[in-house]
Amino acid sequence: MAHKLIILGAGESGIGAALLGKQQGYEVFVSDGSPIKDIYKQELAVNQIPFEEGHHSWDIILGADEIVKSPGIPEKSELMKKVREKGVSVISEIELAYRFSTGKKIIAITGSNGKSTTTALTYHLFKNAGYDVAMVGNIGVSYARQVATAPAEYYVIEVSSFQLDDIKEFKPNVAILLNITPDHLDRYEYKMENYVKSKFRIVMNQTQDDTFVYCEDDPEIMQHLPQQPINSTSIPFTIMKRLKAGGYVDNDQLHIKVDEDPVIVSIYDLALKGKHNLYNSMAAGIAGKTMGIRKEKIRESLTSFKSLEHRMEYVTTVKGVDFINDSKATNVNSVWFALESMEKPIVLIMGGVDKGNDYSAIRPLVQEKVKAIVCLGVDNKPIEEALRNDTPVMVNTTSMKEAVTTALKLAAKGDVVLLSPACASFDLFKNYEDRGRQFKDAVREL
Protein backbone atom coordinates (compact mmCIF):
# COMPACT_ATOMS: atom_id res chain seq x y z
CA MET A 1 0.00 0.00 0.00
CA ALA A 2 1.28 3.45 -0.88
CA HIS A 3 1.94 5.75 2.08
CA LYS A 4 -0.97 8.25 2.21
CA LEU A 5 0.50 11.72 2.69
CA ILE A 6 -1.90 14.61 3.20
CA ILE A 7 -0.54 18.14 2.88
CA LEU A 8 -2.47 20.83 4.78
CA GLY A 9 -1.89 24.28 3.28
CA ALA A 10 -0.76 24.99 -0.28
CA GLY A 11 1.77 27.77 0.16
CA GLU A 12 5.43 27.43 -0.84
CA SER A 13 6.20 24.86 1.86
CA GLY A 14 3.06 22.81 1.16
CA ILE A 15 3.70 22.65 -2.58
CA GLY A 16 7.35 21.74 -1.95
CA ALA A 17 6.24 18.91 0.35
CA ALA A 18 3.72 17.70 -2.26
CA LEU A 19 6.35 17.60 -5.02
CA LEU A 20 8.81 15.73 -2.82
CA GLY A 21 6.18 13.27 -1.52
CA LYS A 22 5.05 12.49 -5.07
CA GLN A 23 8.64 12.03 -6.23
CA GLN A 24 9.28 9.59 -3.37
CA GLY A 25 6.28 7.43 -4.30
CA TYR A 26 3.81 8.61 -1.66
CA GLU A 27 0.12 8.91 -2.44
CA VAL A 28 -0.24 12.69 -2.04
CA PHE A 29 -3.33 14.85 -1.52
CA VAL A 30 -3.23 18.61 -0.88
CA SER A 31 -5.97 20.38 1.08
CA ASP A 32 -6.19 24.14 1.64
CA GLY A 33 -9.07 25.88 3.44
CA SER A 34 -8.47 29.02 1.34
CA PRO A 35 -8.13 29.51 -2.42
CA ILE A 36 -4.80 28.25 -3.83
CA LYS A 37 -2.67 30.63 -5.93
CA ASP A 38 -2.91 29.93 -9.68
CA ILE A 39 0.81 29.34 -10.07
CA TYR A 40 0.69 26.61 -7.39
CA LYS A 41 -2.47 25.05 -8.87
CA GLN A 42 -0.70 24.73 -12.21
CA GLU A 43 2.23 22.98 -10.55
CA LEU A 44 -0.07 20.51 -8.82
CA ALA A 45 -1.92 19.83 -12.08
CA VAL A 46 1.28 19.34 -14.11
CA ASN A 47 2.54 16.89 -11.49
CA GLN A 48 -0.84 15.12 -11.34
CA ILE A 49 -1.26 15.77 -7.61
CA PRO A 50 -4.92 15.89 -6.53
CA PHE A 51 -5.96 18.85 -4.38
CA GLU A 52 -8.92 20.72 -2.90
CA GLU A 53 -9.29 24.40 -2.01
CA GLY A 54 -11.74 26.47 0.01
CA HIS A 55 -12.61 23.57 2.31
CA HIS A 56 -11.21 20.43 3.99
CA SER A 57 -12.57 16.90 3.39
CA TRP A 58 -12.40 15.42 6.88
CA ASP A 59 -12.71 11.78 5.84
CA ILE A 60 -9.74 12.03 3.46
CA ILE A 61 -7.58 14.02 5.90
CA LEU A 62 -8.27 11.78 8.88
CA GLY A 63 -7.54 8.70 6.75
CA ALA A 64 -3.93 9.84 6.21
CA ASP A 65 -0.88 7.80 7.26
CA GLU A 66 0.90 11.08 7.80
CA ILE A 67 0.10 14.78 7.59
CA VAL A 68 2.44 17.61 6.63
CA LYS A 69 1.07 20.74 8.25
CA SER A 70 1.72 24.25 6.95
CA PRO A 71 3.49 26.44 9.53
CA GLY A 72 0.56 28.87 9.24
CA ILE A 73 -2.07 26.52 10.72
CA PRO A 74 -2.47 27.01 14.49
CA GLU A 75 -2.91 24.02 16.80
CA LYS A 76 -6.08 25.54 18.22
CA SER A 77 -7.87 25.37 14.85
CA GLU A 78 -10.84 23.02 14.49
CA LEU A 79 -8.87 21.10 11.88
CA MET A 80 -5.86 20.35 14.11
CA LYS A 81 -8.04 19.44 17.09
CA LYS A 82 -9.69 16.70 15.00
CA VAL A 83 -6.34 15.49 13.63
CA ARG A 84 -4.84 15.28 17.13
CA GLU A 85 -7.92 13.46 18.45
CA LYS A 86 -7.56 10.86 15.71
CA GLY A 87 -3.83 10.53 16.54
CA VAL A 88 -2.53 10.88 12.97
CA SER A 89 1.23 11.56 12.80
CA VAL A 90 1.86 15.24 11.98
CA ILE A 91 5.20 16.55 10.68
CA SER A 92 6.42 19.82 9.23
CA GLU A 93 7.75 20.24 5.72
CA ILE A 94 11.35 20.52 6.99
CA GLU A 95 10.96 17.11 8.67
CA LEU A 96 9.82 15.56 5.37
CA ALA A 97 12.66 17.19 3.45
CA TYR A 98 15.19 16.06 6.08
CA ARG A 99 14.03 12.46 5.65
CA PHE A 100 15.31 12.59 2.07
CA SER A 101 18.56 14.51 2.58
CA THR A 102 20.60 11.77 4.22
CA GLY A 103 24.30 12.47 4.20
CA LYS A 104 23.86 16.16 3.41
CA LYS A 105 25.19 18.93 5.63
CA ILE A 106 22.61 21.22 7.22
CA ILE A 107 23.01 24.64 8.79
CA ALA A 108 19.71 25.71 10.37
CA ILE A 109 19.11 29.23 11.62
CA THR A 110 16.35 30.39 13.94
CA GLY A 111 15.65 33.34 16.22
CA SER A 112 13.07 36.09 16.48
CA ASN A 113 15.13 38.61 14.49
CA GLY A 114 17.95 38.57 11.98
CA LYS A 115 17.17 35.06 10.65
CA SER A 116 16.91 36.05 7.00
CA THR A 117 19.99 38.25 7.05
CA THR A 118 22.07 35.57 8.79
CA THR A 119 20.75 32.86 6.45
CA ALA A 120 21.60 34.93 3.37
CA LEU A 121 25.03 35.80 4.77
CA THR A 122 25.82 32.18 5.67
CA TYR A 123 24.74 31.08 2.20
CA HIS A 124 27.00 33.78 0.70
CA LEU A 125 29.94 32.42 2.75
CA PHE A 126 29.49 28.85 1.48
CA LYS A 127 28.74 29.89 -2.09
CA ASN A 128 31.76 32.17 -2.17
CA ALA A 129 33.95 29.33 -0.86
CA GLY A 130 32.84 27.16 -3.79
CA TYR A 131 30.55 24.79 -1.86
CA ASP A 132 27.52 23.12 -3.49
CA VAL A 133 24.97 24.95 -1.34
CA ALA A 134 21.28 25.89 -1.43
CA MET A 135 19.48 28.54 0.62
CA VAL A 136 16.02 27.35 1.62
CA GLY A 137 13.22 27.57 4.17
CA ASN A 138 11.37 30.72 5.09
CA ILE A 139 13.57 32.60 2.67
CA GLY A 140 12.52 31.91 -0.92
CA VAL A 141 12.34 28.26 -1.96
CA SER A 142 11.08 25.61 0.45
CA TYR A 143 13.55 22.99 1.66
CA ALA A 144 11.37 20.14 0.33
CA ARG A 145 11.13 21.70 -3.14
CA GLN A 146 14.92 22.04 -3.28
CA VAL A 147 15.44 18.41 -2.24
CA ALA A 148 12.93 17.29 -4.90
CA THR A 149 14.14 19.45 -7.78
CA ALA A 150 17.80 20.45 -7.27
CA PRO A 151 19.40 18.69 -4.30
CA ALA A 152 22.61 20.21 -2.93
CA GLU A 153 25.39 18.94 -0.63
CA TYR A 154 24.85 21.77 1.87
CA TYR A 155 21.57 23.37 2.94
CA VAL A 156 21.40 26.69 4.75
CA ILE A 157 17.86 26.75 6.17
CA GLU A 158 15.93 29.54 7.79
CA VAL A 159 13.52 27.86 10.20
CA SER A 160 10.68 29.35 12.23
CA SER A 161 9.45 28.14 15.59
CA PHE A 162 6.26 26.91 13.84
CA GLN A 163 8.33 24.58 11.65
CA LEU A 164 10.28 23.32 14.65
CA ASP A 165 7.04 22.52 16.50
CA ASP A 166 6.45 19.55 14.19
CA ILE A 167 9.89 18.01 13.76
CA LYS A 168 10.70 14.51 14.97
CA GLU A 169 14.16 13.62 13.65
CA PHE A 170 15.30 16.83 11.92
CA LYS A 171 18.90 17.40 12.98
CA PRO A 172 21.13 20.20 11.72
CA ASN A 173 24.93 19.79 11.75
CA VAL A 174 25.05 23.42 12.83
CA ALA A 175 22.11 24.95 14.71
CA ILE A 176 22.16 28.73 15.14
CA LEU A 177 19.92 30.43 17.71
CA LEU A 178 20.26 34.21 17.31
CA ASN A 179 17.88 35.60 19.93
CA ILE A 180 14.46 35.10 21.46
CA THR A 181 12.13 38.06 21.88
CA PRO A 182 8.34 38.08 22.24
CA ASP A 183 6.82 37.32 18.83
CA HIS A 184 3.86 35.18 17.72
CA LEU A 185 2.86 34.71 21.36
CA ASP A 186 -0.73 34.33 20.18
CA ARG A 187 0.32 30.86 18.94
CA TYR A 188 1.92 29.85 22.26
CA GLU A 189 -0.94 30.52 24.69
CA TYR A 190 0.68 33.92 25.35
CA LYS A 191 3.35 32.14 27.38
CA MET A 192 6.92 33.17 26.65
CA GLU A 193 8.33 29.87 27.97
CA ASN A 194 6.33 27.91 25.36
CA TYR A 195 7.84 30.02 22.59
CA VAL A 196 11.36 29.64 24.06
CA LYS A 197 10.99 25.84 24.26
CA SER A 198 9.83 25.79 20.69
CA LYS A 199 12.96 27.63 19.49
CA PHE A 200 15.21 25.28 21.46
CA ARG A 201 13.78 22.28 19.58
CA ILE A 202 16.43 23.10 16.97
CA VAL A 203 19.01 21.26 19.15
CA MET A 204 16.87 18.39 20.37
CA ASN A 205 18.29 15.73 18.02
CA GLN A 206 21.86 16.97 17.87
CA THR A 207 24.75 14.70 18.91
CA GLN A 208 28.33 15.41 19.96
CA ASP A 209 29.38 15.62 16.30
CA ASP A 210 27.12 18.65 15.80
CA THR A 211 27.46 22.29 16.78
CA PHE A 212 25.09 24.64 18.59
CA VAL A 213 25.84 28.33 18.01
CA TYR A 214 24.04 30.82 20.25
CA CYS A 215 24.06 34.42 21.46
CA GLU A 216 25.39 34.76 24.98
CA ASP A 217 23.99 38.31 25.26
CA ASP A 218 20.38 37.17 24.93
CA PRO A 219 18.70 36.94 28.37
CA GLU A 220 15.99 34.47 27.28
CA ILE A 221 18.55 32.06 25.78
CA MET A 222 20.82 32.26 28.81
CA GLN A 223 17.94 31.77 31.22
CA HIS A 224 16.74 28.64 29.42
CA LEU A 225 20.15 27.07 28.65
CA PRO A 226 20.71 25.41 32.06
CA GLN A 227 17.36 23.58 31.77
CA GLN A 228 18.06 22.35 28.25
CA PRO A 229 20.00 19.12 27.68
CA ILE A 230 22.46 19.89 24.87
CA ASN A 231 24.56 17.07 23.45
CA SER A 232 26.33 19.05 20.74
CA THR A 233 29.40 21.27 20.98
CA SER A 234 28.21 24.71 22.11
CA ILE A 235 29.84 27.79 20.62
CA PRO A 236 28.65 31.16 21.96
CA PHE A 237 29.06 34.65 20.51
CA THR A 238 28.93 37.98 22.35
CA ILE A 239 29.85 41.65 22.03
CA MET A 240 30.24 42.10 25.80
CA LYS A 241 33.55 40.33 26.50
CA ARG A 242 36.42 38.27 25.09
CA LEU A 243 35.88 34.52 24.84
CA LYS A 244 38.35 31.62 24.83
CA ALA A 245 36.27 30.02 22.09
CA GLY A 246 33.45 31.50 20.02
CA GLY A 247 32.71 34.87 18.45
CA TYR A 248 33.47 38.17 20.16
CA VAL A 249 34.39 41.79 19.51
CA ASP A 250 37.55 43.34 20.91
CA ASN A 251 39.28 46.61 19.96
CA ASP A 252 36.86 47.20 17.07
CA GLN A 253 37.72 43.81 15.65
CA LEU A 254 35.43 40.86 15.21
CA HIS A 255 37.01 37.55 16.26
CA ILE A 256 35.84 34.07 15.29
CA LYS A 257 37.79 31.53 17.27
CA VAL A 258 36.75 27.90 16.95
CA ASP A 259 40.18 26.35 16.28
CA GLU A 260 43.84 27.30 16.22
CA ASP A 261 43.32 29.57 13.23
CA PRO A 262 41.05 32.51 14.24
CA VAL A 263 39.29 34.80 11.77
CA ILE A 264 39.78 38.50 12.57
CA VAL A 265 37.98 41.30 10.70
CA SER A 266 37.83 45.01 11.46
CA ILE A 267 34.21 45.91 12.25
CA TYR A 268 34.56 48.89 9.89
CA ASP A 269 35.18 46.51 6.98
CA LEU A 270 32.05 44.43 7.58
CA ALA A 271 29.45 44.68 4.81
CA LEU A 272 26.60 44.82 7.33
CA LYS A 273 26.47 47.85 9.59
CA GLY A 274 24.84 48.29 13.00
CA LYS A 275 25.38 46.52 16.29
CA HIS A 276 22.81 43.77 15.62
CA ASN A 277 24.65 42.81 12.45
CA LEU A 278 27.79 42.06 14.45
CA TYR A 279 25.80 39.16 15.89
CA ASN A 280 24.62 38.02 12.46
CA SER A 281 28.17 38.23 11.07
CA MET A 282 29.63 36.24 13.99
CA ALA A 283 26.97 33.52 13.72
CA ALA A 284 27.53 33.10 9.98
CA GLY A 285 31.31 33.17 10.40
CA ILE A 286 31.23 30.48 13.10
CA ALA A 287 29.03 28.26 10.90
CA GLY A 288 31.47 28.65 8.02
CA LYS A 289 34.52 27.96 10.18
CA THR A 290 33.06 24.80 11.75
CA MET A 291 32.41 23.51 8.22
CA GLY A 292 35.99 24.04 7.15
CA ILE A 293 35.79 27.28 5.15
CA ARG A 294 39.20 28.99 5.10
CA LYS A 295 39.57 32.15 7.15
CA GLU A 296 40.56 34.25 4.11
CA LYS A 297 37.30 33.27 2.40
CA ILE A 298 35.25 34.05 5.52
CA ARG A 299 36.87 37.45 5.89
CA GLU A 300 36.29 38.21 2.20
CA SER A 301 32.61 37.12 2.37
CA LEU A 302 31.84 39.10 5.51
CA THR A 303 33.11 42.24 3.78
CA SER A 304 31.52 41.69 0.34
CA PHE A 305 27.95 40.70 1.24
CA LYS A 306 25.04 42.75 -0.16
CA SER A 307 22.10 43.02 2.23
CA LEU A 308 18.63 41.65 1.52
CA GLU A 309 15.74 43.30 -0.26
CA HIS A 310 13.19 44.76 2.23
CA ARG A 311 15.73 44.74 5.07
CA MET A 312 17.15 48.25 5.64
CA GLU A 313 17.29 48.63 1.87
CA TYR A 314 18.19 52.11 0.61
CA VAL A 315 15.73 53.09 -2.15
CA THR A 316 16.62 56.63 -3.25
CA THR A 317 16.99 60.24 -2.09
CA VAL A 318 14.25 62.78 -2.89
CA LYS A 319 14.80 66.49 -2.07
CA GLY A 320 17.62 65.56 0.29
CA VAL A 321 15.50 62.94 2.12
CA ASP A 322 16.69 59.30 2.15
CA PHE A 323 14.03 56.61 1.75
CA ILE A 324 14.71 53.23 3.37
CA ASN A 325 12.64 50.07 2.92
CA ASP A 326 12.62 47.86 6.01
CA SER A 327 9.30 46.16 5.22
CA LYS A 328 10.65 42.90 6.62
CA ALA A 329 10.48 44.40 10.13
CA THR A 330 7.30 42.58 11.14
CA ASN A 331 7.86 42.83 14.90
CA VAL A 332 8.84 45.51 17.41
CA ASN A 333 12.35 44.23 17.96
CA SER A 334 13.20 44.55 14.26
CA VAL A 335 12.11 48.17 14.41
CA TRP A 336 14.32 48.70 17.47
CA PHE A 337 17.31 47.49 15.42
CA ALA A 338 16.39 49.76 12.51
CA LEU A 339 16.05 52.85 14.73
CA GLU A 340 19.20 51.96 16.64
CA SER A 341 21.30 51.95 13.46
CA MET A 342 20.07 55.39 12.22
CA GLU A 343 22.01 58.61 12.69
CA LYS A 344 19.64 61.08 10.98
CA PRO A 345 16.20 62.34 12.18
CA ILE A 346 13.50 59.84 11.17
CA VAL A 347 9.99 60.00 9.76
CA LEU A 348 8.75 56.49 10.56
CA ILE A 349 6.05 54.71 8.56
CA MET A 350 4.61 51.87 10.62
CA GLY A 351 1.47 49.80 11.16
CA GLY A 352 -0.42 46.78 9.86
CA VAL A 353 -1.73 43.70 11.65
CA ASP A 354 -0.66 44.00 15.27
CA LYS A 355 0.28 40.65 16.90
CA GLY A 356 -0.30 41.92 20.42
CA ASN A 357 2.85 44.06 20.21
CA ASP A 358 4.47 45.70 23.22
CA TYR A 359 5.82 48.99 21.90
CA SER A 360 7.47 50.04 25.16
CA ALA A 361 10.87 48.71 24.00
CA ILE A 362 11.12 51.31 21.22
CA ARG A 363 9.76 54.30 23.13
CA PRO A 364 13.18 55.71 24.18
CA LEU A 365 14.47 55.47 20.58
CA VAL A 366 11.28 57.02 19.21
CA GLN A 367 11.62 59.93 21.67
CA GLU A 368 15.27 60.40 20.71
CA LYS A 369 15.17 59.96 16.93
CA VAL A 370 11.66 60.03 15.45
CA LYS A 371 10.19 63.42 14.47
CA ALA A 372 6.95 61.99 13.06
CA ILE A 373 5.11 58.68 12.78
CA VAL A 374 2.97 57.98 9.74
CA CYS A 375 0.56 55.14 10.60
CA LEU A 376 -0.32 52.86 7.72
CA GLY A 377 -2.94 50.27 8.51
CA VAL A 378 -6.60 49.44 8.87
CA ASP A 379 -6.46 49.77 12.65
CA ASN A 380 -3.75 52.09 14.02
CA LYS A 381 -5.16 52.34 17.55
CA PRO A 382 -2.51 50.19 19.27
CA ILE A 383 0.32 52.32 17.85
CA GLU A 384 -1.47 55.59 18.62
CA GLU A 385 -2.12 54.56 22.21
CA ALA A 386 1.44 53.33 22.76
CA LEU A 387 3.50 56.05 21.05
CA ARG A 388 1.30 59.16 20.81
CA ASN A 389 3.25 60.97 23.54
CA ASP A 390 6.70 60.00 22.25
CA THR A 391 6.74 61.89 18.97
CA PRO A 392 5.59 65.43 18.04
CA VAL A 393 3.51 64.37 15.00
CA MET A 394 1.35 61.33 14.31
CA VAL A 395 -0.72 60.95 11.14
CA ASN A 396 -3.08 58.22 9.90
CA THR A 397 -2.99 57.01 6.29
CA THR A 398 -4.74 54.14 4.52
CA SER A 399 -2.62 53.54 1.42
CA MET A 400 1.10 53.30 0.68
CA LYS A 401 0.94 56.21 -1.75
CA GLU A 402 -0.67 58.46 0.86
CA ALA A 403 1.83 57.32 3.51
CA VAL A 404 4.83 58.09 1.29
CA THR A 405 3.63 61.54 0.15
CA THR A 406 2.70 62.44 3.75
CA ALA A 407 6.11 61.30 5.00
CA LEU A 408 7.93 63.45 2.43
CA LYS A 409 5.90 66.52 3.50
CA LEU A 410 6.85 65.91 7.14
CA ALA A 411 10.55 65.37 6.37
CA ALA A 412 13.20 68.04 5.92
CA LYS A 413 16.44 67.89 3.97
CA GLY A 414 18.88 65.56 5.77
CA ASP A 415 16.09 63.38 7.27
CA VAL A 416 15.29 59.73 6.62
CA VAL A 417 11.89 58.27 5.77
CA LEU A 418 11.94 54.73 7.14
CA LEU A 419 9.31 52.08 6.39
CA SER A 420 9.70 49.76 9.39
CA PRO A 421 6.19 48.56 10.17
CA ALA A 422 6.51 46.40 13.36
CA CYS A 423 3.44 44.53 12.14
CA ALA A 424 2.31 41.89 9.68
CA SER A 425 1.17 43.19 6.30
CA PHE A 426 -2.00 41.24 5.60
CA ASP A 427 -4.46 44.08 6.19
CA LEU A 428 -3.49 46.06 3.08
CA PHE A 429 -0.88 43.93 1.27
CA LYS A 430 -0.31 40.35 0.11
CA ASN A 431 2.85 40.02 2.24
CA TYR A 432 5.82 42.06 3.42
CA GLU A 433 7.47 41.81 -0.04
CA ASP A 434 4.40 43.30 -1.69
CA ARG A 435 4.38 46.06 0.96
CA GLY A 436 8.08 46.78 0.33
CA ARG A 437 7.64 46.88 -3.45
CA GLN A 438 4.65 49.20 -3.20
CA PHE A 439 6.75 51.45 -0.97
CA LYS A 440 9.59 51.53 -3.51
CA ASP A 441 7.16 52.19 -6.38
CA ALA A 442 5.48 55.04 -4.48
CA VAL A 443 8.89 56.56 -3.60
CA ARG A 444 10.05 56.44 -7.23
CA GLU A 445 6.87 58.20 -8.34
CA LEU A 446 7.47 61.19 -6.02
From TrEMBL:
One of the GO biological process terms: cell wall organization
Binding-site positions, ATP: G111, S112, N113, G114, K115, S116, T117
Top class in the EC scheme: ligase
Catalysed reactions, as listed in the record: UDP-N-acetyl-alpha-D-muramoyl-L-alanine + D-glutamate + ATP = UDP-N-acetyl-alpha-D-muramoyl-L-alanyl-D-glutamate + ADP + phosphate + H(+)
Sequence ranges assigned to domain Mur ligase C-terminal in this UniProt record: 310-423
Compartment(s) where it occurs, according to its Swiss-Prot or TrEMBL record: Cytoplasm
Keyword Protein transport: no
Pathways per UniProt: Cell wall biogenesis; peptidoglycan biosynthesis
SUPFAM superfamilies on file: MurCD N-terminal domain, MurD-like peptide ligases, catalytic domain, MurD-like peptide ligases, peptide-binding domain
Keywords: ATP-binding, Cell cycle, Cell division, Cell shape, Cell wall biogenesis/degradation, Cytoplasm, Ligase, Nucleotide-binding, Peptidoglycan synthesis
EC numbers: 6.3.2.9
Cellular compartments per GO CC: cytoplasm
NCBIfam families attached to this UniProt entry: murD (TIGR01087)
Annotated PANTHER family: UDP-N-ACETYLMURAMOYLALANINE--D-GLUTAMATE LIGASE
Function: Cell wall formation. Catalyzes the addition of glutamate to the nucleotide precursor UDP-N-acetylmuramoyl-L-alanine (UMA).
Family stated for the protein in its record: Belongs to the MurCDEF family.
Descriptive protein name: UDP-N-acetylmuramoylalanine--D-glutamate ligase
